[in-house]
Structure formats: C-alpha cells, structure tokens
Amino acid sequence: MPPDSGSESRARQFRAHHPTGTEVQSQTLLDGMVKYRLVHLTFGPDEKLGLDIGIFTPIEGGPFPAVIMPAGTPPGATPLPRQPQGPGQGRGVNALLAVGPDAIWPFCFEGQLKNGNAGQVVGMGLDIPAAPLLNNRKRAPRLAEPSEKSLGEWNSSEITCRGDTIEVFVNGVRQNFVENLPVTRGAIALQMEGYPIEFRNVWLEPL
Fold first, then answer.
1. pTM confidence score
2. 13 close to 30: Cβ distance less than 8 angstroms
3. Ranges of each domain in the chain
4. What are the pLDDT digits (tens) for 16-40?
5. Is residue 148 helix, strand or coil?
6. Residue 44 CA to its chain's centroid (Å)
7. Is the CATH code 3.40.228 the one for domain 93-200?
C-alpha cells in the first residue's frame, strides 16, 4: 500500500513542535535517595535541533517533586556555546499560561519572575482589562514591594488560575490579582530568557 502522506505530514508537524527525549545516562545519588538522568531532547524540523537537560527525582515517595536543569551544562553533558546577552537579559524567567497555537512566543499570560519585578502579570498578545499598556503590552503591576530573594537563592511562586482570574504570590506575598480575562483555560509552561535557571518542587493542583 502507498504511504499515507497525510499521516506522515501530521507526524512531521508533531515532531517539529514537540521535543523527543532520549535518556543518555542515569545514576543514583545521595545514598540511593535521588535518581539523576541526563536526557537529550531533539526538536524542530527533521529533529535537527537538540539540547541536554538534567532531571533529579526522588527514588521513593510521591507525587514526585523534581529539580530540572534546562540551561547551563548538566553533569555529563556537552557544553553548548553561549551567545552574548543583550540589554536587560540574564535575570528573567517566567511561568506562562499559554493559549492558542504552539509558537516561540505564544499568546499567554506571563507571571513575571524578572529580578526586581517578580509578580507582575503580562498579557502576551492577550488583554488584561484593568492593566496599563506599557511597551506595547498590557502589564499588571505588583501589588506590594518586591518580595523575591537575592540572586542565587530559591524563590517560591504560587499562581492560581480560577475562572477568568489569576492570583500570584511570590515568597508568600500577594503580588497580583487580575480578573475579567478573555480566556479561562490553556497550557502551563516555563520560560527561560538567556540565563541558567533551575526549577524544583513544581506542583500542579486542580481546583
């Protein structure tokens, strides 16, 4: 039978937008309490792009909090070349509620974690009705003084999406609440902007 060109095309499109992970190596650490895995991701057209990430997960117990190293050079990985940072880069990483088609810059609500501005909510192509328009985007400012810790320390961020509202706490401080948003569902994503970042204890809880 001739190949199903439609199925092959859909498969190629899926692989172009969804990374494929291959475990390169693994080992147990901390007297057998933690498992470390080096995973190679391939993505893009014909899966010609790739990078390594390191994943640390507990051996027992659950649900499993994890530390993910999506940047820098995980143990055992080949170092990648670094491009020079542009103005304002190097201190930003965001949590996203993404909606619409998959894209490098998807339509989303961005929970800003940039140093000195953690807690701001940004509409990336989406409207935040009560927020001012700054630099061509709706940006809901913080409700309190900056509450993030010094660079290099762990910060906690609790983001609640309920109906057409988003509420943000940074290190226990209520930093934002936006409402009357134009969308009420979407995907959850983490964003890195040109600087190594680590995540741990990433929890998703249905309301």
1. 0.56
2. no
3. 5-69, 93-200
4. 556 678 888 888 877 777 788 888 8
5. coil
6. 18
7. no
